[in-house]
Amino acid sequence: MPDIIRLLPDSVANQIAAGEVIQRPASAVKELLENAIDAGATSVRVIIKDAGKTLIQVIDNGCGMSPTDARMSFERHATSKIENAKDLFSIRTLGFRGEALASIAAIAHIEMKTRKESDELGTLLVIEGSKVKSQEETTCPAGTSIAVKNLFFNVPARRNFLKSDVLEFRHIIEEFQRVAMVHPDIEISLHHNEKPVFQLNKTNFKQRIVNIFGNPMNEKLVPVELKTEQVNISGFVGKPETARKTRGEQYFFANGRFIRHAYLNHAVEQAYQELIPDSSYPTYFLNVGVDPGSIDVNIHPTKTEVNFQYGQLVYSAVRAAVKQSLGMFGISPTLDFDAEPGFNINMPKGYQPKPPTISINPEYNPFASPKPSVKAGISANRKEWEQLFEINKTELSTGLISTETTEIASGGKEESRLFENKSELPETTAKLLQVHNRFIVAVVRSGMMVIDQQKAIERIEYEKLTSKLSSHKVEKQQCLYPHTVHLAPGDASILDEIIEELGNIGFEISSLGSGTYVLQCLPASHNPLNPEGLIESLIENFKNNKPLLALGKQPGVAAVVAKDIAMKFNRSLKPQEMQLIVDELFACQIPEIAADGSKIVRVLAIREIEKLFQ
Ligand code: ADP
Ligand code: MG
Question: Torsion over CA of 216, 268, 260 and 95, rounded to 10 degrees?
């Protein structure tokens, strides 16, 4: 048998390496930015077209490259940053593996212009899929400009798996922010499709954070500073009230490199213990400075995971530093034993709780033959659903099951107006049972129906929004006065992407530039209280429900708005409210499937219930 093992050609090896290093346009942005920083640039410009799918260009005023270095930089394992294995233990640069440029060149079209300050002429290099197409002398400013075009042109699988422009650009913004944040001494800007997104001047760390996340951040930050022999902790943490429901602004940097570190995150959470609710996450921007010899960054190709040699020590230092700052700035908890929550339910004097009553239909014969059941996996057919229900209402009104729902007045002021102006609510309602403020249970002909309350409202609101869209009958309400909202650039870019679609469903929002927006009209279904909060929660919802955008931009926006309305309803419902939800749900075109493809309604057939008892 002949030998069968052979070495892969460089271009193939590079393409394989690219799979690890360059997962999406944002990864290329990260690598190019890191190279610019390593080159000692003081000014960096990032230009993006179509979320990086068409163009990613990074222009720096760093040290530039000689013609030979320019050519060498695209070779695999070619780096100026380390010489031997020993250097791996004293890395002070962001890059060192020498594979980023080789990887990017394997899967894109590259045009690089570079010149060293001391050289008169620069080099123009054109590479397509690892092949050098041309190299010539050129006049260009000192520094380096690398344009990456048609990313993944020869890896269709990668290209096809890229998400929408909104999402891919969101990833780019994240990478940009991470680099920009920890290098406030560098002037840096980001343009997308010819529009400026960030233009950040040289400043200090705190001001850079504020410039990235918006002015309101200014009052929310508390400085953190702790120096020990082995580790320096510096940066800022958010006052407890800035804690978010979603993991938002949480940044660790190790020697100026953004890292993910669950263990250190835990240290910060420990420091916040009892200051913020369990369900929320603290904001932090923390630099951990250690001796480069005591940190291993080489455990993952993207270099965002690191190992600290003195992990335990770094953990304690982070926790102590944060705790100390929160204490020093008077943010320690004030214990108020009189107001212990949970013991303070206001009940009228002499109130006797009533047990729920169950009434039984003496006529009911459980052995009577069941009526033919409706097939499971029912298609969207309102008639069918109606049939299913009609029969039940009669069954129900004979008093087969009766339950009492405790009526808790809904305190939520921010609720949508789903139930408003519904004076035509039926007086007597079919008996519906609410379970744990989450599900509505009804008896149906074939068994028992369980409806996911929140998803049902989502479906109802979604169809209302989309049907008005197609009939061009969007119902708007004018705000009493225009509301001004200030957004951080990252959030503003999300709003810009969807402002038109929001407009189509009744949100009249206009941009005044630099992250300021004015809200004048809302869809009629929204409660006009607190519209500022509404915009913020919409954006937050957008970040958390990215898959919905796969529906297409306009339906995706409608689905997120519907979700936003529905979120306010995880509470106890009055019987009439439940009835209305059920009625409106089954008047929908597709009552049983949510916009994200999950189920809204399940029917548990008698036979299946019987099986439970076998
Ligand atoms: P690494 O950063 O790990 O060394 P890269 O593939 O990213 O590997 O870059 C290879 C080499 O090309 C770098 O070591 C550096 O010498 C040079 N280089 C890359 N980008 C720039 C730049 N923007 N300015 C100057 N030199 C650069
Ligand atoms: Mg690099």
Answer: 80
